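This section describes the prediction task in plain terms. A model, or a person checking by hand, is given the sequence of a single protein chain and must write out its three-dimensional structure as a string of tokens. No templates, partner chains or ligands are provided. The sample shown here is typical of the held-out split.
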Amino acid sequence: MNRNFLCLLVLLSGLIGCDTNEKPVFPVYPVKGTVKYDDGKPLTDCWIEFTSQAGETKGRNSNSKIDKDGNFEMETFARGKGAYAGPVTAVISEPAPKSESETEEVKILHDKVLEKYKNYETSGLKFDIDKKDNTLNIIIDRK
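The expected answer:
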């Protein structure tokens, strides 16, 4: 019986490595930059997200928190820091409220970004990510 079990184990271990449906791995490239209002002041404490429009990577996302100085550095969930090469469309959003009873400060925070920038179809934020280090200086309308 041990011999049969050993044969079955050897057979199964050979089959485990035979998956021909491996998903391709696409590289990402460094993307950093700033987001500022049209009056030159930085957008702070928000999020920016890219979705790839390039053939094989279409629909894959990368995102970053925008810090207190308006700086960001894109990162993907599976591939680490960077974004996929090719054309991307971007959206910008505020963080979710921290509690059900919003304070006046949180309500003001949610007026930082115009609604058009929160939707891929209306944001107008389109960029080309090159297969190298990328720096983007994004300007958005305040009103």
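For orientation: The two ends are 77 Å apart (CA to CA).
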